[in-house]
Amino acid sequence: MPTSPSVASAPASPPRVARDRRTDLIVTLVALALAVWVTSGLWRDPNGRAITVNSSDQALFEWLLAFGGHTVTHLQNPLFTYLINVPDGVNLAVNTSITVYAVVFAPLTYLIGPPATFLVILTLNLAATAVAWYWLLSRHLVDSRLAAAIGGLFIGFSPGMVSHANAHLNWTAGWLVPLLVWRVFALRRTGHWWRDGVLLGLLVAVAFSIAAEGLFFTALALGVFVAVWALHPANRAEARAVLPSFLRGLAVTAVVAGVLLAYPLWLHFAGPQRFHGTGFDAVIHSEDIAAYAAYPRRSLAGEAGFGTSLAPNPTEENSFFGLPLLVLAVGCFVLVWRRADPGRRATLWALGVLAVVFGTLSFGPVAKVDGHRTDLPMPFDLFGHLPVVNAALPARLALVVTPVIGLLLAYAVDQLRRQPPRRAAAVAWTVGFVVALVPLFPTPLLTIEREPIPRFITSGAWREYVSPGGTLTPAPLTLDVYPDGQRWQAYALANRQGEFAIPSGFFLGPGGPDDRGRIGPVPRPFGALLDQAARTGLPPIVTEGTREEVQADLVHWRIETVVLADEVHGAKWPVDEDAVRRTLTTLFGEPERVEDVWLWRVQQR
């Protein structure tokens, strides 16, 4: 475990305290300004714009915020719902339910709407991550506030964090990690194991409800770090001395977190609509070895044309540090190592092992180099089939390397400020930091104008065509590629218009290959017909057999009304609304024009 910096025995003078507080404020304001800068495209019109490369995930998180607030005011189960995927429902415990966010921000969701609340949380996530790491560094790990600021701001706005800012409210909640690190280190204290265990248990429960996969990775990383640190010769005596208190604290943590998470964990592993493992290909969603030296797309280097397509999608640029930063990190390691005492060397050794282990695991089952798959097996292949591990994407393990680099940067700057080098060396180090970090300076997320929610929904007119709790079907059916249905539902819930259910939806559920998970439900004929028309612009041929299959789907979903908006959002491709309307007209006859939508009342036989 990292050792705390030495401090003078005399209390800090008022000027020093004032300077430190002023620095804290400056770092906080800089972090907030950078967060607003990254998300500035959405701030132009929070309710009218969406993230270009991941509008479907944005719609999902907006729906989760609206649904979570609705469950609070209506005393419903926040972890299971029948409002989507009628009639089977969705187990949100195996999805990213962000329950704590939904509950805490419920008043804001009702006040300004799900899209604007989503943007507030996303912006605060980025700023809070940088500030939380700055706090941990400045209070526990380094003397220099400048060193802490560089380390914290790098981690908070690293390529991985900016990449996941493309709509991932779970992964951008990186502020949880330094808090978990802080509370785990606190378990070393003798005489406080009960209180420290309770606090860590509460924090684990919060982290699970916001970012369960991130909590899993953090626990693995802390386990590796603590084991390597404790086994180092310089720390064995201390580790043996604090081990009883540490284990008692962990036991209390397990009891507290276990009690708070008993129902979510039961739902996750044994509840209805659960699944084991995901339908994502571990080879596709693994980190390319060359990605570590590449530049991310949303950076100055990326804007200058040095970005790559080595990630499976723009939200998963989990490493992408650039070669200069990798060289600088090694240089920082050597600098600090050469002047470190045995305790600090033990910390550096543990950090190095942590970076190598998680960097290697991020390569997935087989190595990929510059976009080309090799036959070289990787260590992840040995563990990827284990329970829980099989639900994680190996590429995201690279996110653990980011704090290691941030710590090395902070340690090096702290060392250079305490023992200033000669002028030439100081210039060289300054140039090195500039060359490594300036190209990674983040650029704003790409955004697009989103299709407006129809007046049919915003006016509440839908209530005349759907019985209370009945099923309204957007066309095409709601999926990750057609997220409008959940946007409409989120609006209705947040504006207290009442409930309507929808078939299908964007969620993770059972039905994938080898009994693994999949996005959305197993396709049915009616949904496939509308998808074909929307995607290709060619209405399918409808036979009597087709009509019978569609009728069976209508009965299965208990559909009362089918609705087609004038503008339908396609998250991956444009939607041909005219082809969808002609398909529905062939199936159900001429539609009604209600407000600004086409509507078919379904007569189930």
UniProtKB/TrEMBL annotation:
Pfam families linked to this entry: DUF6311 (PF19830)
DUF6311 domain residues: 78-423
Domain of life of the source: Bacteria
Protein name: DUF2079 domain-containing protein
Annotated source species: Micromonospora endophytica
